[in-house]
Design goal:
The complex is a heterodimer. Chain A is of the alpha+beta class. Chain A has 14 helices and 21 strands. The relative contact order of chain A is 0.08. Chain B contains 5 helices and 9 strands; from the N terminus they run E-E-E-H-H-H-E-E-E-E-H-E-E-H. The chains are: A alpha+beta, B alpha+beta.
Chain lengths: 469, 166
C-alpha cells in the first residue's frame, strides 16, 4: 500500500519545458511574426501574451495538483489530466525495471527522475515521474521493484568498464555523429527563412557575401571545410555530454550503465532481455583499430530503435576480452567465413548501377559534371569492400553475422533470440545460386534484422538447418 | 525432402484457396476504378487550366496497362506462388513471383494467431490467418474459412500458450 503522492513542485517547470519543446516549431513562426510587426501589436499584444502565459501557467499548476501516483492492490496507479482524466494501472509483476536519472532541471533542484519500464517496447505504458526527491525515488523503487537500492550497493564494486578521459575524447572525436550533425545543420539553415521570414536571411547573405564568396572555387571548398569542422566540433561536444563519466557494471543478471555529463542517466537492464550484441567499427574508427559495442534489447532504450551503447570505445584487440569477461553469453572465437565468390559482382553492381544513373546525366548536362564520375568509382571500391567484409560463422548456439554499409558491423545473435528467418531470392540471384538471408530478433523498435546479402545457397542452407534444429 | 539449390526446401506444402484469384482480381478492379478518378480530373485540368493534353492520354494508357497486368495476369501467378507448411516444429511460408521468399517461424516463437476477414474476403468465404511473433506479424492470405479456422487452432495448440520471455 502506497498512499497517493504528488510530484515535487519543480515538476511544473519540467511540464512547461516539455510542452514548449513539443510546441516550439509551431510557436516560433508566430513569435517571429509578432516580433517582426511589434509596432502594430504593442498595447493589447503585450496584454494578450501575458494573459496567455498566466493562464497556461495556472493550467500547468492545476495539472500538477491532479497528477498523482500510488500503489494499490499490487498495482501501480497513475492519475492525471484536468479535463480528460487518465488512469494508468500497471500490475507490479509487469514492471521489468526502474530507471533513475537526473536532467538539468532535476539537478538544479537536487531531484531525480524515475522511469518505470514495462515489458514490450514502444506502444505499452511508459511511466515517467519527472521530479522526485531522491529519498522518495529510492523508496518507490524498492516498493516497485522489490529489491534493495542497487545503485548504492553497486558503487562498492568497481566498474567492469570505465571510459577514461582520453578514451572519451577519442570516442567523441571519431564518432559518426558528424554526418548527423551536418544534416541537422543543413536543415536548420534551410528552415531559417521560414522561421524568420521578416529577416530575409538568404537575400541579405547572398547580396553581401555572394560576390566574393561564390566567385572562387577555393572559397567554396573552404566553406565546405569549415562546415565540416564545425559539425565535427558540435558532434564532439554532443558525444562528450552523452558519454561523459560512462561506466558499465555487470552484476549477475543485470547490467548497470551510468553515463552523461549534463543529464546523468542510469540504465538498469536484465541480461536475459538482450537480443543481440553488435560490434561497430565506424568509418573513422576502423583505421585506428577502434570500435564500439552496442546491444539490441527488447523493452529498453528509445523506441526510435537507438541501440544501447555498452562500450563507447574499445581497442579492437580488447573486444574479445571484454565480451569474455562481461558478456560471456555473446563471446565468440570462430574465424568468420566469406559468403560466396560469386557475390562480388552482385555487391558491386548493387552500388554501381544507381551511381551510374545519377552520374551519367549529371556529367552530360551540368558544367564540370564529369567530376561526378568519381561516384561510380567510389561505388566499385565500396561494393568490393562490402563483398569482402560480408561474412558469417556459427559457434554453438550463436550466429555471428558481419556486414558493411559504410562502417563494419559484427553482430552476435543467440539462436533462441531469432524470432523468424526470411530467405529471399531475386530472379537474377536464382540463376547465380545466391540469396538474401535475414534473421529478425525482437527489439524495442519492434524488430531488428540482421541480413546476409548474396550468400551462396549452400551456405544459406547450413544456417537454415542450424536455425531449424 | 529435397534440398534445392534455391530458396525452397520442399516438404508437404499446402496451397492457399483458389478463390484467392477471383478475390485478387476484384481488389485489382477496385484499385483501377479508384485510380481512374484521375482520368476526369486530368481531363478537366487540361481543358480549363491548360495542363498538357497528353496527360489524360498517358494516364488512360497506364490504367489499361495496370488493369491488364494486375487483373488478368498477376492473380493466378500469385496464387501459384503462395504456399505454406505447418509442422509441429515450425511454420514455413513460401511466396513471391519476381522475388521468392521463404520464411521460417519456429513454433515456440509464435505469440498469438488471429483470423481476419474484410468485406470482400467474406463474400468469397475466405479469411487471412495472422501469425504474430515478438518481432512482427506474418500472414497466410485467403484460406477458406473452415481451413483458416483449422490452421489457426492447429497453430494455437502447437505454439506454447505461455510466451517465452523475450
Amino acid at each position: 500500500m502506497y498512499e497517493p503522492h504528488r510530484l515535487h513542485p519543480a515538476a511544473i517547470l519540467v511540464f512547461i519545458g516539455r510542452n514548449l519543446r513539443q510546441m516550439w516549431q509551431v510557436l516560433l513562426p508566430w513569435l517571429a511574426i509578432i516580433i517582426g510587426k511589434w509596432s502594430s501589436f504593442q498595447g493589447w499584444g503585450t496584454f494578450l501574451l501575458a494573459l496567455t502565459g498566466v493562464i497556461y501557467i495556472l493550467y500547468t499548476i492545476l495539472f500538477w495538483m491532479r497528477y498523482n501516483y500510488s500503489i494499490q492492490e499490487q498495482e501501480f496507479l497513475l492519475e492525471s489530466g484536468l479535463f480528460i482524466k487518465k488512469k494508468m494501472n500497471i500490475p507490479l509483476e509487469r514492471i521489468h525495471g526502474v530507471q533513475i536519472s537526473q536532467g538539468l532541471v532535476q539537478r538544479l533542484f537536487g531531484l531525480v527522475k524515475l522511469e518505470v519500464e514495462t515489458a514490450g517496447g514502444g506502444k505499452k505504458a511508459e511511466v515517467s515521474l519527472v521530479a522526485l526527491e531522491r529519498m522518495e525515488a529510492e523508496r518507490l523503487r524498492t516498493v516497485l521493484y522489490g529489491k534493495s537500492t542497487q545503485t548504492v550497493e553497486s558503487e562498492v564494486k568497481a566498474a567492469d568498464y570505465q571510459l577514461t578521459t582520453r578514451r572519451l575524447l577519442l570516442a567523441a572525436s571519431t564518432s559518426n555523429g558528424i554526418g548527423v550533425t551536418l544534416a541537422a545543420m543543413l536543415t536548420v539553415i534551410s528552415q531559417l527563412d521560414e522561421w524568420f521570414p521578416s529577416l530575409r536571411i538568404y537575400e541579405q547573405v547572398g547580396q553581401k557575401l555572394g560576390h566574393w564568396f561564390l566567385s572562387s572555387y577555393l572559397s567554396i571548398i573552404l566553406g565546405i571545410f569549415l562546415a565540416i569542422i564545425l559539425a565535427w566540433i558540435l558532434s564532439l561536444i554532443g558525444s562528450l555530454v552523452r558519454y561523459g563519466g560512462f561506466t558499465l557494471l555487470r552484476e549477475g543478471d543485470r547490467i548497470l550503465i551510468k553515463q552523461g555529463w549534463v543529464e546523468k542517466k542510469q540504465l538498469n537492464l536484465p541480461v536475459r532481455r538482450l537480443q543481440a550484441v553488435t560490434v561497430v567499427e565506424g568509418v573513422l574508427r576502423r583505421p585506428l583499430g577502434l570500435a564500439s559495442i552496442e546491444l539490441v534489447s527488447a523493452g529498453y532504450g528509445d523506441s526510435s530503435g537507438t541501440a544501447v551503447v555498452i562500450a563507447p570505445l574499445l581497442k579492437k584487440t580488447e573486444i574479445s576480452g571484454f565480451l569474455q569477461s562481461v558478456f560471456p553469453e555473446f563471446a565468440f572465437e570462430t574465424e568468420l567465413e566469406q559468403i560466396d565468390p560469386r557475390a562480388r559482382v552482385s555487391y558491386i553492381m548493387r552500388l554501381l548501377l544507381p551511381s551510374l544513373l545519377l552520374a551519367v546525366p549529371i556529367s552530360i548536362f551540368v558544367p564540370y559534371g564529369y567530376l561526378s564520375l568519381l561516384l561510380p568509382v567510389a561505388a566499385i571500391i565500396l561494393g568490393n569492400r562490402q563483398y569482402q567484409d560480408a561474412a558469417w560463422a556459427i559457434e554453438g548456439d550463436k550466429l555471428i553475422v558481419r556486414s558493411r554499409f559504410l562502417g563494419l558491423v559484427t553482430s552476435v545473435i543467440p539462436r533462441r533470440r531469432i524470432q523468424w528467418l526470411g530467405a529471399s531470392q531475386h530472379f537474377f540471384q536464382r540463376r547465380k545460386g545466391l540469396q538474401r538471408l535475414a534473421l529478425t530478433t525482437a527489439s524495442t523498435a519492434g524488430g531488428a534484422s540482421f541480413a546476409l546479402a548474396y550468400i551462396g545457397s549452400a551456405k544459406a542452407a547450413v544456417i537454415k538447418n542450424w536455425f531449424q534444429q | 525432402m529435397r534440398t534445392g539449390q534455391g530458396v525452397y526446401i520442399i516438404e508437404h506444402r499446402k496451397m492457399i484457396d483458389k478463390k484467392a484469384i477471383s478475390y485478387w482480381r476484384w481488389t485489382g478492379v477496385i484499385n483501377v476504378l479508384f485510380w481512374s478518378l484521375l482520368l476526369p480530373a486530368s481531363w478537366f485540368a487540361a481543358r480549363h487550366w491548360s495542363w498538357p493534353m497528353w496527360l489524360p492520354a498517358a494516364i488512360a494508357f497506364l490504367l489499361i496497362l495496370v488493369a491488364v497486368v494486375n487483373i488478368l495476369l498477376i492473380p493466378s501467378v500469385r496464387w501459384r506462388s503462395w504456399s505454406y507448411d505447418i509442422s509441429s516444429q515450425q511454420i514455413q511460408l513460401f511466396q513471391g513471383i519476381w522475388i521468392k521468399r521463404h520464411i521460417i517461424i519456429p513454433m515456440v516463437r509464435v505469440q498469438h494467431v488471429d483470423m481476419q476477414q474484410g468485406p470482400l474476403l467474406r463474400r468469397y468465404g475466405l479469411s487471412t490467418v495472422i501469425i504474430a511473433t515478438a518481432a512482427g506479424e506474418h500472414e497466410i492470405p485467403a484460406l477458406a474459412d473452415e481451413v483458416a479456422m483449422q490452421v489457426r487452432d492447429h497453430i494455437a495448440s502447437l505454439a506454447r500458450v505461455v510466451d517465452e520471455d523475450v
